Amino acid sequence: MKIKLALCSASKDILRQARKEFSALAIETGLELEMAFFANANDLVDAFCEFDIACVHEVDFISAMPVLTAVVKDRSDPGMPATHKLVIGMFSIPVKPAEFMMLIAQLRHFSTTIDIPISKGRKTEIAADIIYFENINRRIHIKTAAETYPTNLTLKTARDLTVAHPFASPYVSYLVNLAWVESIASKDVVLKNKETIPLSQKKAADFRRLYGEYLSKLQ
């Protein structure tokens, strides 16, 4: 797997050391890393669509994040190909392999696509961009980070398509991507796009358990 990695730090010494450590990590893990180096976040923003992962040194991370997140909001940009995702992370010296491998896992997750059958063919969606499936008037609609549209799915086939991804049902007419869950209230689920969807008493315990398991895997 070839990965284009951007490393950002105001310190030339940090970048030189990072080059050595990430190169050693690539050999150790069998990854093919193509690295580029930036002294500030503004320069990285100008070229960010060229990269898969952007790692900012911990000293510069707090100041860089507002600049980067403003441009890569929802991890996408209208001018970029639909399948391109930029994963942003923080690195320290010495480099921690486990933290970098977590970014690799996120990248693979963002790159996974699902074919959605619709009335005039099919649409390809990045799994991480799907917020939920909803049954509206006996037809399953999909809500993504970009749009909402009807599909030719049933909730059962939607479950089958997303079995390898963290989806769960909080209510009889919904199948929700747990990565988009912000919080769970007594009768509602609040999503990161600020929508609120119902949580049924019958499904609440199982939904909370699955969400807890999802969060534990991120730690």
Structure description:
This protein starts with a strand and ends with a helix. It is of the alpha+beta class and 219 residues long. Helices cover 36% and strands 32% of the residues. Helix 2 packs across helix 3. The strands form four sheets. Strands 9-8-7-11-10 form a five-stranded antiparallel sheet, sandwiched between helices. Strands 2-1-3-4 form a four-stranded parallel sheet. It has six helices and 14 strands.
| Total beta strand runs | 14
Low-pLDDT runs: 74-83
What percent strand?
25-35%
Q: What is the helix/strand order?
A: EHEHEHEHEEEEEHEEEEEH
Question: In which order are the strands of the major sheet placed?
Answer: 9-8-7-11-10
SS-based structural class? alpha+beta
Largest sheet: 5 strands, antiparallel
User: What is the percent of helical residues?
Assistant: 25-40%
Distance between the termini: 24 Å
What does the average pLDDT come to? Answer: 87
Query: Looking at the structure, what is the overall shape?
Result: elongated
Individual helix count: 6
Q: Work out the radius of gyration.
A: 19 Å
Describe the secondary structure blueprint for this structure.
Layout: E1 2-8, H1 12-29, E2 32-38, H2 41-47, E3 53-57, H3 58-71, E4 87-91, H4 97-111, E5 113-118, E6 121-126, E7 130-136, E8 139-144, E9 148-150, H5 155-161, E10 167-168, E11 174-177, E12 181-184, E13 188-191, E14 196-198, H6 201-218
Parallel strand pairs: 1-2, 1-3, 3-4
Antiparallel strand pairs: 5-6, 7-8, 7-11, 8-9, 10-11, 12-13, 13-14
